[in-house]
Amino acid sequence: MGVFDSFFKKKDTSVLGIDIGTSAIKIVQLRRDGNKAVLETYGELALGPYAGVEVGQATQLPNEKIIEALNDLMNEKEVNITTKECGLAIPFRASLMSVIQLPKTAEKQIAQLVPMEARKYIPVPITEVALDWTVIPEDEYELENEEDPNQPKVAHNLNVLVIAIHNDVINNFQTIVEKTGLHASFFEVEIFSTMRAVLNENNTPVMILDMGASTTKLYVVEKGIVRTSHTINKGSQDITAFLATSLGISVQKAEILKRDEGLLGVYENQPLKDVMSATLDYIFSEANRTLLSYERKANKNVSKILLVGGGAALKGFAELAQKSFETEVVSGDPFSKVQTPAFLEEILKHTGPEFAVAVGTAIRKLQELE
Question: What separation, in Å, do the N-terminal and C-terminal C-alpha atoms of the chain show?
Fold first, then answer.
């Protein structure tokens, strides 16, 4: 190596997006090529075996096991991770999100007022959490002028979206980063990673339905702001459990059957869709209730429902969901924002919903290099 080689060496433009879920870790490596994000590699590792349970089951692993699993994934030859530069997504369940109102005249003092006002919504001392916030853009349809409905509507309050994350959660993630040798420049709540990965410029409200292993999260997003959120305590592991019980097979076999055949398969003359629908009908019913509640409150329609998460990657899932909603249903396709090899196109379109968080986190990390 010449004496000037390191000085002129091109800056490493490969980055990682890491999503540590309850049932699996997903990782995506991107690099910048001009103004394009290019997929270099991606991988997934089930966490069930690290907790002594089956693949696909939700876990509550201690840091040591998460660190072990993440190291195992990054060291897999087939995945071939070549960088430690990353961003990490924090689970939605580890955050608290609220919309608070401040006087319109207080915009200049927002940094001082938000922590004071946030105390009303956060059940722990404000010193125990990290706060972030963003001002929600004014929307004439949400403003009120009670004195004269025919006059232009005026905003009297400033709506601010506040996100709180407990310091213990951040400390846990920092420990994971240190023990795996990663270089993380940020942690962000997973919904914001998902939004970056699957949303395009669209001012109309959309619902994101994110089915994980143990829960299904619902978010209504408008103009890049989370307007409302709801968690359903059922997810893809509940489908597996009901499948195993109904068909009289092991959880392991039920998980394989679910992943390989999805809602399109048949087992011993029994259509799998008929069995899985018992769980999915409940989830879709709750999602419909959340959607209609928002539409009534906001007096506007949700334009589409975007499906993400491991459960949404099941074969036939989007088609069944469409039958349960009057609103258009679309599978999230985060890899559409990334340049990928042509031979992987169909595979990535199918597996895309699973990797929405990891892709969105990697994209933000790439944006930092601009």
Answer: 28
